[in-house]
Structures are given as structure tokens and as C-alpha cells.
Amino acid sequence: MRMLPQLSALTLALLALCAGQVMAQNPAGPKTREQVKNELKEAIRTGNMPANDETGRMLNEVNPSAYPPKPTVPCKTREQVKAELAEAQRTGNMMAPGESGCLLNEINPSAYPPKPVVPCKTREEVKAELAEAQRTGNMPASGEAGCMLKDMYPDLYPKK
Quick one: pLDDT at residue 22? Predict the structure, then answer.
């Protein structure tokens, strides 16, 4: 494996920030040291790391010949694209001409089949969910902490 140029402190800080965000979003818990090492080896191998410049590009974008090519995603067939277009025309799920940014079925809803209605919860179901959340403390606490009541006051609510 060839040596990479020395990474700047800014690049390392960016990597640390990204790693922290990924760990915060990972519902399975934090990654092991071995997993992180393997991910770093793979990023170095593929050049999927920020370049040491101000462009925000990755190393494999700056020097693509130094890294293996990215895998290509299979394209849709002509028949699949035609079927999607026909469905969009039938339902009006296409952009209207002009600069409105609206879909055709939003501008003229009577010209297209109605969108399926998602069944709503009844008032009783909502009340039952609220009562359960109040009982278990599964409600946001006041303030900006972002904590649930059961986390702030664990003695006030039943254990699982």
C-alpha cells in the first residue's frame, strides 16, 4: 500500500466530525475499533476521503486514475422508463410547464385520478396513545434538552 500525503489538521477534524455524526446515527451502537480500522483501510484504498484542498472533492475525484473505478449501477431498460412515463402521465405526477414548480395533478386535480387516502387514526386511538405515552413517560420533557420524561425522571415511570 502506498503512503498518502500527510493529512492536514482540518481534514482530520472533518473526518472526526463525520465519524461522530455517523456514530450518533448508528442505532446498533458504536462501531468497534476493528470496524473503524477496516473502514479507514477501504476509504484509503478507494480514495473515498476528502482531498487536501479547498474544493471539497474526494481523492478519487481529484486523481481518478490512482484508484479503482466506482461500481456502476445498472440502468433502467427502455421499457421500464416508458412504463414510468406512462404512469406519470396517467396520474399527473409530472411537473407542469412554466415556473410554478407544481405537479400537473396539483394544478388540475379533476383531470387525474384521486390520490389514495391514507386512513387516519380515530380520536379514541389518539387519546389512547397519549394516555400510554403519559403513563410510560415517553413524551418530550419541556425545555431544549431533547430528553424524554422517562429519561429525566426514571423513578416516576414503570420499567419495561
Answer: 59
